[in-house]
Amino acid sequence: MSSCWSFQRLFIGYNVELGECEEFVYGGCNGNDNRFWSLEDCQRLYPRCTLPLETGRCLAYFPRFGYNIEKRQCEEFIYGGCLGNRNRFTTLDDCQRTCEE
After folding, report:
1. Is residue 3 part of a domain?
2. Which CDD domains does the record match to this protein (predicted)?
3. Confidence category of residue 42, pLDDT binned at 50, 70, 90
4. Which residues make Cβ contacts (< 8 Å) with residue 3, sequence separation at least 6?
C-alpha cells in the first residue's frame, strides 16, 4: 500500500511471492509501475505460462499440470494445496490449450 490516502482506488498489481496478479487499494502517492487498471493488463505483462512449476508450501497431494518453458510442453506436477502460482491447470488439455497453442 502507498503511504497517502487522499485518493483511494482499487488496482491490480503483480504479487511476486504468489506469482499472480491480485487486487490492492492504492492511496494515491509513493506508488510504482506495478499498478494496472485490469486483471487482463497485468496478466499480459506477467504471462501465466512463463511462471515456474511451483508446489506451494502446503503438504496436500493434488496432481496438476503446468507448462515447462524449458521443455516447451505441459507436464504433471504435485500441487500442495496453497500458494504456488497461476501456472497450474486441473487437466493436461487445459494446460495445452492455454500454453502450447
Report:
1. no
2. Kunitz-type (cd00109)
3. confident
4. 27, 29, 30
Q: pLDDT category, 59, cuts 50, 70, 90? A: very high
**In which band, very low, low, confident or very high, does the pLDDT at 33 lie, cut at 50, 70 and 90?**
confident
Alpha helices in the chain (DSSP H): 39-45, 92-95
CATH number at residue 54: 4.10.410.10
For residue 2, count other CB atoms closer than 10 A to its CB: 16
Residue-averaged pLDDT of the chain:
87
**The Cα angle at residue 46 between residues 40 and 51, in degrees rounded to 5:** 130
Q: Is residue 1 part of a domain?
A: no
Q: Is 64 within 8 Å of 36 (Cβ atoms)?
A: no
For residue range 88-97, what is the model confidence (pLDDT) as tens digits? 999 999 999 9
Could you list the residue range(s) of the whole structural domain that residue 89 is in?
49-100
Cell numbers for 35: 499498478
Residues 67 and 79 in one domain: yes
